[in-house]
Amino acid sequence: MAMIPFEQAIAIDTEIRTAYLNYSMSVIVGRALPDIRDGLKPVQRRVLFAMHEMGVRSGGAYKKSARIVGDVIGKYHPHGDTAVYDTAVRLVQPFTLRYPLIDGQGNFGSIDGDSPAAMRYTEIRLKAISEEMMSELSEETVGFGPNYDESLEEPKVLPAKLPLLLLNGSSGIAVGMATNIPPHNSREIINALLEMIDNPSFSMEDLLRVVTGPDFPTGGLIMGRSGIEEAFRTGRGSVVMRGVVDVEESTRADRQAIVISEIPYMVNKTRLIEKIAALVRDKEIDGIADIRDESNREGMRIVLDLKRDGNPQVIINRLYSMTALQSSFGVNFVAIVNQRPVTLSLLEALRHFLDFRQDVVTKRTLYRLKKARERFHILEGLKRAIDLMDQIIALIRASDSPETAREGLMTSYAFSEIQARAILDMRLQRLTALERDKIEAEYEEVRKIILELERILGSRDVLMGVVREEFLELREKFGDERRTRIVPDEGEIDFESLIPDDPCYINLTFQGYIKRLSKDAYPTQNRGGKGRIGVTLKDDDAVISTLSPTMHETILFFTDIGKVYRLKVHEIPEGQRATRGKSIRSLLALAPDEKVTQLLSIRSFGEEKSLIFVTERGKIKRTQLIHYGQIRQSGIIAISLEEGDRLAQVMVGEPGTDILIATKGGKGILIPMDDPDKGFRSMGRTASGVKGIKLAPNDLVVGAETIQDEDFVAVITARGYGKRVNTGKDFRLQGRGGQGVRILKAAEKIGPVVSVIKVTGSEDVFLITQKGQALRIETSTIRLTGRTAQGVKLLNLQSEDEIQCASLAPLRGETEDGTPAT
C-alpha cells in the first residue's frame, strides 16, 4: 500500500473538524436558513425562478404541479420530488403564509392537517406578488451562478421589491442553529421602510410605533406587548398567541355556547378539537355538553355547547391553560447576511433590506442607462444616416458584400460598427418623412431618459426617492389590514373585574364533590329550626367543609398529604342548592389517592400576614402567607404531616393576634402568637410545626381561630347545640404546649365539639350536617354563656345525623316568611 507523503498528512481530528464545519455551513447557507435580502431558502427561490422561466404567470394558465416539480429537479434542485412539491405546497397555503407566493388549483391541504393531493392532480401558477419579486431579474440587478451540473445559471438571490422574510416569516433547523421568524403586515412593514427613508435617525422606538407586532395568517390574538418588544429589540422572544373566543346563546334553551372563530398560528384545528374532547371526557374540563365543528368556506366556527351550570369564563380560561388555544411563538430571528448566519433585530433586518433595495435600484438604473446609451448611439447614427442617405445608398450599391459596405460606412463617414450595422439593417420605409420624424422623437425621448437616469445615479436622495415611490405603489397594490389583534395581557387587564364580587357559599364533601352557591341559596331561619336540604349526598358521603367567600377571593385547597392547590372562587362551577356538585378532580390535578381535607379563602397575599396550621394531634405551624401566593397547577407542599396526623384548621393570622385552639373533648387554649416565650416563630413552608396543645387520650383538635382583644367565639357541638363565649373574659393567655382550659361541658346529649367560629353577633352562622341539611341562623340568637355551660339547641337533627361543619354566612338574605332578616 502506498504511503502518504508526510507533508500531505493531516491529523484526523483536524480533518473531521474541518469537514464537519464545511458540512454545517453548507446546510446553513445552502438549505435551512433564509437570505435576509429576498427572505427565501434556496429551494423556494428555485421553485419560483423555474416557474418564472417557464412563463407560468399570474394571469396565464395553470400548469400541472408535477411538470413544475420535474423542471425544478432537472434544472436546479436534484434533491427529490417530495422536497420540491412540499415547498410548492407551502407557498400556496393561505393558512401557512401571510402572503402566498403561488396560486394553487386543487387540494393543497387544510388547517385540519389534511394532506395535499398528489402533484399529478394539482395545478399552480405564480401570484402577482411573486412576479414583482422577479420583475427585475433581466436587468443585471443580482448575481447568477451555475446550477448543480453547471449546465445552466440560476440567481443567487431574487431582486425582491418587498422584504418577504418579514412579510411571510420563516422557520428552519440547521446544524447547531435554527430560525423562527413570524409573519408581519405588509402595510406596516412598508410604512416602516418609508419612514426609514424619510428619517435617517429612525429608531427602535419609532419602529415600535409603526409596526405593532406580528400578523399571523390565521388571525387570533397576541397577548401583551412585552414579548413583541423583546423580539423586535433582540431578535429573540416569546409571543403569546390566543384564539378568538366569543360567548353566544346556544341553540338549546337557557344555555350558552363558546364559539371559537380563530385559532393560533400553526395550530391544527382537528387536533385542537380532539384535545378539548379528551379533556371533557376525562373530566379535566367540566361544563361542556357538546362540541361541533361548523367551519365552512365562510370561515372557522368551533361551537362548544355548555351545560346549564357551565361558567363560560372559567371554561375559556381552562381551555387557554390546557389546550393549544393559547400557544407561544418563540421568535428566533436568524438569517443569512453576507453568507453568514446572524441574529438580527427587526430594525437591523429592515436596514439590511433597504440597503439591498438601494443596491438593486442602483444596478437596475445602471443597466437601463447602459441600454439607453446604446440605443441613443444607434439613433445618432440613424439620424445622421438619413441626412446622408443618397451617398450611403451609392456606397452600398458599389460594395461587393455587406462586410465591404460596413467597412465603407465606418471609414468614409466615421460611423461606429454598431451604427453601421444598424444602418445596413434599416428598412427603406424608414426614409419616409413620417419615419424620420419618429427617429427624431425617439432620439429626443432617449436623451431625456439618459439625463434622468444620470440624475438618479448622481444623488442618493434622488435614488431613494425612486425607491420610496416604488414602496408607495407596492403598498397600494399589496397592503392590507391586520388580521391579528394585540390585546393587553393578563397583567394589563383583569378579566376577573368582569365578574361581580358577590358573596357566595362553597361546599365540599368527603367524596370530593364541590359546588358554589349564590348568597341567596339559604335564607335566615330561627334558632331551633330543622334547616333545609343544602346538598344531595350519596349514602357514604358527607359534607366536610363549607366557606362563605366572595367571587374574587382565592380558595386554597389543602390535602391529606400536606399539599396545597388554588382556584379562584369564580372558577368553581355554580350548582343548585340540592345538587351534589362537581368532582374536585375535574378542577385540581390531584394524585389518585390524594383527598382535599381543608379549604381556606384568601383575599390578598400580603407580606405581613401568615398562614397558621393546626393539626388534629395538636401541632401548630406559622408560615408567611406570601410563600403560597404562587402555586403551580400541580400544587406545592404546604406542611409536612406526621403519619396518622391530619389538618384540623388553616387560617390567616396577622401580627399581634392570639390563637385559640379547641378540641373535640371541650378543651381550649389561647396562645399569644408573637410572644417570644409563649408563642411560636415563623417557619419554612415545608416545616411540620411545634406542639400547640397537649391532648388528653382519644382527644383531637377540631378547630382554631385567630383572636384579637375580646373577640367572641361560637362553640358548636355535633348534636346541634351551641353557645357564644367571651374570649377576653373567660380565657387567659398560655404558652404553647399547655393543656388549656375547658370551653364547654361535654355530655352525650350535646355531643363533642365540632367547630369554633369567631363572631361579632351581627352576622349569621351557616351550619351543615353530614346528611346535607343546612341552617343559617343569626349569631345574636346564640346565647352568651360562660366557659363551662353546655349551650342551647341550634338545630333539630334527624336521628343518626350530626353537624359536620360551620362557617360565617354571606350577607343576609330573607327569613322563610319573606321578611328581611335583622
TrEMBL record:
Location of the protein in the cell: Cytoplasm
MF GO annotations: ATP binding; DNA binding; DNA negative supercoiling activity
Substrates-to-products reaction catalysed: ATP-dependent breakage, passage and rejoining of double-stranded DNA
Top-level taxon: Bacteria
Domain Topo IIA-type catalytic residues, every copy: 33-498
Keyword annotations: ATP-binding, Cytoplasm, DNA-binding, Isomerase, Nucleotide-binding, Topoisomerase
Coiled-coil spans in chain: none
Motif residue range(s): GyrA-box: 525-531
Top EC group: isomerase
UniProt record, GO biological process: DNA topological change; DNA-templated DNA replication
One matching Pfam family: DNA_topoisoIV
Catalytic residue list: 121
Subunit note: Heterotetramer, composed of two GyrA and two GyrB chains. In the heterotetramer, GyrA contains the active site tyrosine that forms a transient covalent intermediate with DNA, while GyrB binds cofactors and catalyzes ATP hydrolysis. Heterotetramer composed of ParC and ParE.
Further details from the record: Few gyrases are as efficient as E.coli at forming negative supercoils. Not all organisms have 2 type II topoisomerases; in organisms with a single type II topoisomerase this enzyme also has to decatenate newly replicated chromosomes.
The name this protein goes by in its record: DNA gyrase subunit A
Organism: Leptospirillum ferrooxidans (strain C2-3)
Phylogenetic classification of the source organism: Bacteria, Pseudomonadati, Nitrospirota, Nitrospiria, Nitrospirales
